[in-house]
Design goal:
The complex is a heterodimer.
Chain A: H1 3-11, E1 18-22, H2 24-27, H3 32-43, E2 47-52, H4 57-70, E3 80-86, H5 93-105, E4 112-118, E5 122-127, E6 132-136
Parallel strand pairs in A: 1-2
Antiparallel strand pairs in A: 2-4, 3-4, 5-6
Helix pairs in contact in A: 3-4
Chain B: H1 2-21, E1 24-29, H2 36-48, E2 66-75, E3 78-86, H3 96-100, H4 106-126, E4 132-138, H5 146-157, E5 162-167, H6 176-182, E6 188-190, H7 199-210
Parallel strand pairs in B: 1-3, 1-4, 4-5, 5-6
Antiparallel strand pairs in B: 2-3
Classes of the chains: A alpha+beta, B alpha/beta.
Chain lengths: 138, 214
């Protein structure tokens, strides 16, 4: 059996995808509708998206709602995997919100990184306060 | 002057009277299979004799928001009337193939997945209507799930008082400390909805939380 075949058998085939990085400056001036549209556009093109900063809680909930509405209407789309990790994690999400909620709402938590991927590519995002692990679908 | 003082006093008494008689809308939120309906059933059964909905090991058993009105909870001489609102579990992905593992047909699985997606949308819409929320988490699961963070973040933004319940403490793998570490600003009550363990602490927390309603 060739080396390539053995590799495929062991690990399976990972379908093509790319990773896109979205700096905060790219979404800073967008309103919530535009931000969500931008994020969806990237994810629906089979990309894993890394955003500098984070969406507001409201935007996250809307993103979940919007993607739920797409399941069954877009071929092979099963939803998303989403995780946020913040640099000053010990301060906790809600401590930060209490201190500067307006800042968080504006997505201005620069120490945070948001990772969003289509569930067809990302099987699971394992998250703890210090790291995010991405498990991909074979 | 005396009339003004009397008027204000009368107004306050009336307001308090109205507040005490008003039903408090208490929502049960959380990821699928955390035990929201089990807990809501336990409370409803204790105080009304009836359950609110069916429970199952298959995720997304609750796919529509279900209610039980005028549930009068009495605990240590205190009484409060609640409208219990049990919501479908919030998830970021739903794959009909996951239901096939539970011996469902493809057609049934697809239908369940479709209803489950609508349930998630409905749960999110209902966030605005709650007076207080019990976030039910499975104490055997990793609490750092983004769904949990998103739900609580949305409640904070809406200034809705939150109580976190760590359910399934009867199971060996349960770890309440992990949930407390993940949400240090919140009171976490460990319970077993299945066996009714530690519900006294839960009721006490509910009464305390109701004072924070704005």
């Amino acid at each position: 059996m060739s080396e390539k075949r053995r590799g495929e058998e062991r690990w399976g085939k990972i379908k093509g995808f790319s990773i896109q990085f979205l700096p905060y400056s790219e979404i800073r001036d967008l309103n919530s509708d535009e931000r969500i549209k931008r994020v969806l556009g990237i994810i629906l093109s089979n990309n894993i998206l890394i955003i500098q900063g984070r969406l507001s809680s409201n935007e996250e909930a809307r993103l979940i709602g919007d993607t739920m509405a797409m399941i069954g209407h877009i071929k092979d789309f099963r939803g998303i995997e989403l995780a946020v990790i913040s640099g000053n994690e010990r301060e906790s999400f809600f401590g930060k919100m209490a201190k500067g909620f307006a800042n968080v709402l504006a997505g201005g938590d620069f120490s945070a990184i948001t990772i969003i991927g289509p569930a067809s590519i990302v099987k699971e995002m394992k998250r703890n306060p210090k790291k995010i692990e991405l498990l991909l679908n074979r | 002057m005396a009339i003004k003082v009397f008027k204000n006093f009368f107004k306050r008494v009336l307001a308090n009277l109205f507040k005490n008689n008003k039903e408090i809308k208490m929502g049960f939120y959380g990821p699928p299979n955390a035990g929201k309906t089990s807990l809501a059933n336990r409370i409803c059964k204790d105080f009304t004799g009836e359950e609110i909905g069916s429970v199952s090991k298959v995720p997304h058993e609750t796919r529509k928001v279900q209610f039980k009105e005028k549930v009068e909870i009495s605990y240590k001489g205190k009484k409060m009337v609640f409208k219990m609102i049990d919501t479908p579990g919030i998830a970021t992905k739903i794959d009909y193939e996951d239901f096939l593992k539970f011996k469902m047909s493809k057609k049934e699985s697809k239908e369940r997945a479709k209803e489950a997606t609508q349930g998630v949308i409905e749960s999110i819409k209902w966030l605005d209507d709650m007076n207080m929320v019990v976030v039910v988490l499975d104490a055997t699961e990793n609490p750092y799930n983004q769904v949990n963070i998103t739900i609580i973040g949305n409640l904070v933004a809406r200034k809705i008082p939150v109580l976190i319940v760590a359910n399934k403490i009867d199971l060996k793998k349960a770890d309440i400390k992990k949930i407390e570490a993940a949400f240090p600003e919140y009171e976490v009550v460990g319970i077993s909805a299945r066996f009714g363990d530690n519900l006294e602490e839960f009721y006490e927390s509910i009464f305390r939380l109701s004072k924070k309603i704005q």
